[in-house]
User: What shape does this take?
Amino acid sequence: MTQPAKPDLVTVNVDGREVSVPKGTNMIEAARLAGVDVPHYCYHPKLTVVGNCRMCLVEMGLPAVDPATKQPVMDPATGKQKINWVPRPTIACATNATPGLHIRTNTPSVKDCREGVMEFLLINHPLDCPICDQAGECRLQEQSMGYGRGYSRFIEHKNVKPKRTQLGPRVTLDDERCILCSRCIRFCKEVAKDDVLGFVDRGSYSTLTCYPGKELANNYSLNTVDICPVGALTSTDFRFKMRVWFLKQTNSIDTESSVGANTVVWSREGVIYRITPRRNDEVNDTWMTDSGRLLFKEVRQENRLTAVQVDGQASSLDIAIHTAAELLKAGSVAVVGSGRSSVEEQFLTKKIADTLKASTQLVARVGQGDKILLSADRNPNVRGALVTGLINRLPEAQLSQLGAAIDAGKVKTVLAINEDLSAAGLTQAQLGKVAIVYVGTHANATSAAARVVLPTLTVFEKSGTLVNQQFRIQKFHAAIPGLAGAVNDLVVLGKLLAKVGGSSAPTDLTGVWAQLVGEVAVLAGLSFAKISDTGVVLNASDFANLVFPEGETLHYKPAAASAPVPA
Amino acid sequence: MAVIQVDRKPLTFAERTYIPQILSGLKTTWKHLRSTAVTLEYPEQRPNIPPGYRGVPTLVKDPHGREKCVSCQLCEFVCPPKAIRITPGEIPPGSPNRQIEKAPQAFDIDMLRCIYCGFCQEVCPEEAIFLQNQYSMTGYTREEMVNHKDKLLELGGTLPDKHFKWEKKLHAEQEGNAH
Amino acid sequence: MDFFFELPLWVQAALKGLAVIAVIFPIAGACSMAERKVSAWIQDRPGPSRAIPPWFAIIPIIGPFLQRLGAFHLLADGGKLLFKEDPLPGHVNKFYFVMAPLVAMIPALSTVAFVPFGAYVSEAKQVVPLILANVDVGLLGVFALASLGVYSLILAGWASNSKYPFLGGVRASAQLISYELSMTLSVLPVFLWINAPGQSGSLSLARVVEYQSQPGFLGGMWFVFLMPVSAFIFLVALFAETNRQPFDMPESEADLVGGFHTEYGSFKWSLFFVAEYSHMTVGSAVFALLFLGGWNPLPWVSLQTLGGWLHLTGHPVVLGILSVLIFIGKVLASIFFFMWVRWTLPRFRYDQVMRIGWKQLLPLSILNLIVYTCIIGGMEYFGHR
Assistant: This one.
């Protein structure tokens, strides 16, 4: 809201404090800038304003002007311009800041208004808190503590409404808890562009429901759960799994596509329970895809690699690194990097490839973009590979060149970083012809064929950076400790590099970044700590001639007319 | 704050020999030597448990035999030594208690950790956990000292309950006052 | 009796030694039991009252009574100490560490030899004391051997190679030296009194008792009345010598964690315990002999007088047993007093212990000696003796 480059500032007065806010800011945001909290339910900064919860009532006043002369009316007592206070409260969400606007949020009448609204909202709200998943992050709980009257005068029967309604495959609705703020309806209509929700019936019988014959099944349905201020909409996957107050929040990045949506990973004692979006107005606003929320399930998948293997036998890390280095040093090496690795890992991969004078390639993953927060490039970090110099052209989906080289006998050893070569088009026979060193998280045909398997960590177990489609470098942090047996990627790659290069190599973020800033021009002056939580946009002029597969998404427009299929 | 100087009285000669004090001490102990024991001989004699005693935490059922815990996990949160561990679970829609929706799948209290502070009882919104009169918890292994849900319910028994809020909820649902 | 004296000398010695061990060990054990029980009574507790072997439990009244009395805890404790694992810490000097409790036992058992524990009147109307070694050095022997006991504490403290035991050992040696002097000086008037000048003297304890058995006001008067200050000094010094409260500096559980025996456990520890109690028993016995008239039943009432009243003159064995019982009764009363004081008084501070020993007891005992020397000299001069 406050992002225009040169905003037109106006001065408003909130509870006696003057604050300059951009013109067009509503009173809730203006008050927030002044450090005053105006409680609200239906207002959401990324959705249209409807003003139906009435919780944000404040007193509003404007400087008095003489109607006849258009001259300011001065107050002789204070010597300032007189303020004409509106006699009734005003909703703060639907009134925009104008010059000289006065807001009062702490008067007895505002307090009365809030208590009255809270009382009405709570009339039919069930006392479900002990069994409600929203408890702990519920606006109704917070605001009844902050602004409610503290006791109930309601002695009649509460309304009975449908509970445990399945709105869609991932969302469960409890209508009794709904306070009819319509955030979810507006979200579906405005952001997800899938208008399926609405209210039926009137008055206190109003009920949220899907339109007949439709269901809330779009890939953004779980955002309605996030924005629901109460426990009406809950995630079927997360339902009754864990209380939110136990969960540790770790900032992370959605690795589903090159959008790089900012996320928060919620974990407890090494187990991830859910992923929610984190606000980044330049990337994903406050939304993310449902599919991206399920990525944490890969951490404890059956086929996770948890043992270092040499020729199919469990081994120690040092022996495996030694064996791998011997294989690689024999020459005729091809390195298959990954667009899913972090910038730091790609950098070390590149250094290994440089040391071995090996050819490097990435595997492209291209799908259908949905024009919102799922881009066509399903690799989160292809641009990272470009930035670090691991590749200098866009990757292809099939490793046909590598296959041909193997068939021609030009490649004897393949270092595969978390990529399944057979899924990328190599045949089983081709895999059999080469010695494979596999560094990755999950078992697949390549790890089965590999001479050396080095198990590594998923994005949730390590820290690093990714470069998204806007060439924005963003950080992710380790939410949980690595699975027993798996080794940090940087340790594996650093040790491998040290073995093949014969010198020491960094095995942690600090060490890698010390080299990154020196060797990668666009990262000069940065450090891991200096990258803010919303990321830093890198200079992408070197790659202006490349044609990326992404189409338009939220906050991203392709530079040139994009070709849907890479060259 | 006023400073009060307290003069140390010099000891008399008799006091400096310690003998009168020793004799009076011997007199005191002699009196005790002849009085009866005031202790409780534990396994045979049991202490009277005063009201409000905080014994072993237990889970209780309401008079209709329903487990009152809905696994809100507030006790787990408030527990200072982290003795409580709850795995929440869902009550299937067909169950007679379907309106409660949520019940603990597992409820473990590690009595090696429990400090009998009673916070769990205080915080429980459903009045499902009570520190009752049981004061003797013993076991030969660490596993034995972890009370699981069955044991907790068995220890807790049934307590009178005047609220029946979930039953009211079921009634309202059956009456169906929506429209 | 005769067959015993016809046995070879070494067999006699061995039998006497075994008898001492067989008596002293149970007495020490019983003392430890009594200590627990007395402390319990003083603290309004029942004390040990659980252990009972099943075949005793079925005896109607006596069984439960013995159980309440805690009599079998003695066996239980002894059994436990015998059979539990005997730890030998890795950091100790093993030879001296093992030797210390043995050294503690030597004076504990051997001092008994000089202590007469009764008397019988022989057919020749002679009072013959019951004593293992009726030698003239008597008390000197007791003192000489008893003070060897401190070596065991020093040895234990040093061999443990650990700071608290070491401090305990140092304290023990300092304390024993401080109180040995007063103790010896306090008994000198007694022996000055009983040994007439110009004649061959004796330090025999039996002789002291004999002296207290004479007819007449002064003759039948126990030395506790005749020399109360000596008795007091001896008693205080005895507390210090036996390391009993309020003088148990070498152990002091509170500040030294057990002092010299911190590193000891099971049987080796129990030997220290037995030594301490036998020390206490012998000390009590010496006190009873010197100041409480030995086996004489009451002041001014000697054993022979009692025998005459009870018509036991013709039964030397019965009278002998009676004398032993009277003597043991006095010793037990004295031991009880030790325990009573222990559960009444707190420990002195170490500087207080030193001050009392050097600056109060020692001058007092010297003064006491001078006063009695003058009195005896005066009496001799004026021919009252």
About this structure: Chain C touches chain B through 14 residues (CB under 8 Å). Chain C has two domains: 1-83, 89-381.
